[in-house]
Amino acid sequence: xxxxxxxxxxxxxxxxxxxxxxxxxxxxxxxxxxxxxxxxxxxxxxxxxxxxxxxxxxxxxxxxxxxxxxxxxxxxxxxxxxxxxxxxxxxxxxxxxxxxxxxxxxxxxxxxxxxxxxxxxxxxxxxxxxxxxxxxxxxxxxxxxxxxxxxxxxxxxxxxxxxxxxxxxxxxxxxxxxxxxxxxxxxxxxxxxxxxxxxxxxxxxxxxxxxxxxxxxxxxxxxxxxxxxxxxxxxxxxxxxxxxxxxx
Length: 248
Ligand SMILES: Nc1ncnc2c1ncn2[C@@H]1O[C@H](COP(=O)(O)OP(=O)(O)O)[C@@H](O)[C@H]1O
Ligand SMILES: [Mg+2]
Prior knowledge:
Number of strands: 12
Low-confidence stretches: none
Largest sheet: 6 strands, mixed
Shape: globular
Strand content: 25-35%
CATH architecture of the domain at 9-86 and 171-247: 3-Layer(aba) Sandwich
Helix content: 25-40%
Bound molecules: adenosine-5'-diphosphate, magnesium ion
Strand order of the largest sheet: 6-9-10-3-11-12
Oligomer: single chain
Distance between the termini: 33 Å
Mean pLDDT: 91
Structural class: alpha/beta
CATH topology of the domain at 9-86 and 171-247: Rossmann fold
């Protein structure tokens, strides 16, 4: 029987397996991520969280199983394929280039060109600056100038720029892998606020964290993994931190 995933799911995975030489990192994971929902993904080190999200981000291919995006089975060959499907990933050490400006980082890989000469595109710098200012304002981030170098920003501000980028390009799914690691309390609160706001904007969030309080503060649902398997999948209002801890 062809399983197209749950009808209201934006992404479904079915029976995903992944091996790294001898290590069976994912052992038949099936999950649905719905529109307008923030899902917390928790589990000890080695549980398989990063492996799962790296598959959704197009970085790894599963050895077995299916990834279904908006009802269609997909075979992603790289991060670009995931981005084209509206799936954006924000890593703890995110994919920012410190020596480049905020504006250039927001448009990295998607730079608008004015015209090309002999295969070289002339970048539309003005448009990148203008749209960056808007993108940053849209996520309620306060930064001096789109020309500031990303290397001069704090960890929390960098996460903010990464989120602004994902929002600007209208991502449908935002994956955040340990986004609050190494952030100050204030910056952590800001990232949690961002995640809480995503559902209202029609964006599905997958929030990986080892801090259960952060998950309970911003997610609608929690999925716990252990040793490559899903061991709990519950709505936040139908479970507790203690119940989740007990299965890990
Ligand atoms: N590139 C890799 N090569 C070999 N083993 C890996 C690799 N990435 C992850 N693993 C192994 O796969 C398992 C799951 O790891 P991972 O997905 O990173 O878990 P988590 O993100 O939950 O800590 C672990 O046993 C880990 O050691
Ligand atoms: Mg990990």
